[in-house]
Design brief:
single chain, 176 residues, alpha/beta, Rossmann fold, 5 strands
Length: 176
C-alpha cells in the first residue's frame, strides 16, 4: 500500500530544469517565489539547476541582485550535473559524458556562444523533464529536439499563480 502511494504521489510531481533567465520573474514579482516554494514543499514540483546556472548568475554585476537570484535558485532547487560536457564550460563532477554530440551541436545552433544554453537544455533532455526558459531561440531549439518547454509564467500558472501583464508604455502624442 505504501509503495502504491509513493508511486502515485511521485508521478504527480512536476520536474523542471531552470534556465538562468527563468529565475528573474520569480525574484521580481511578489508572491511568485512563495507559489513555487509551496509547490516544492508540497512535493508537487522539483526544480533542477546546474553549475551553468550558478556560473551565469555569479556574473551579474549588481551584487544585491546576484545574491538574491542565487539564493532563490539554491533555496528552491536541486543541483544536478549537466546532461552533456563541453570543453572550457563544464566542471568536473558536475557534468555527464554523453554520446549525443550531434544533438548538442544542434541545440547550441552550432555556435559556441550558445554553449551554456545547450548544456542546460541537454540537462532537461537527460532528466526527461521540461525546460523553463524565457528565451525564444533556446525554446525553439529545445522543442525541435523533443524537449518540453515552459516559460516562467506557464510554470507559475500550473501552480495557480499568474504573473501580472506588463502595462503598455504611455504613448506620446506630438503637439503642434
Amino acid at each position: 500500500m505504501a509503495d502504491t502511494l509513493l508511486a502515485v504521489s511521485s508521478s504527480l510531481m512536476r520536474q523542471v530544469v531552470f534556465d538562468s533567465n527563468a529565475v528573474d520573474p520569480v525574484a521580481d514579482v511578489s508572491g511568485a517565489y512563495e507559489a513555487l516554494e509551496s509547490a516544492v514543499n508540497a512535493g508537487k514540483l522539483k526544480i533542477l539547476y546546474t553549475h551553468v546556472n550558478i556560473d551565469e548568475l555569479a556574473e551579474i554585476p549588481d551584487l544585491d541582485r546576484r545574491r538574491r537570484l542565487l539564493l532563490l535558485l539554491v533555496a528552491l532547487g536541486n543541483l544536478v550535473p549537466t546532461g552533456a560536457t563541453a570543453v572550457d564550460y563544464s566542471r568536473i563532477n558536475f557534468c555527464r559524458v554523453s554520446d549525443e554530440s550531434d544533438d548538442f551541436e544542434l541545440m547550441r545552433s552550432k555556435s559556441i556562444k550558445h554553449t551554456q544554453d545547450a548544456l542546460i537544455a541537454s540537462t532537461a533532455r537527460f532528466e526527461q523533464c521540461a525546460l523553463v526558459t524565457n528565451e525564444h531561440r533556446l525554446a525553439k531549439r529545445s522543442r525541435e529536439r523533443g524537449i518540453e518547454v515552459l516559460t516562467s509564467a506557464e510554470l507559475l500558472a500550473e501552480f495557480g499563480f499568474t504573473l501580472p501583464i506588463p502595462k503598455p508604455s504611455a504613448t506620446t502624442v506630438p503637439t503642434t
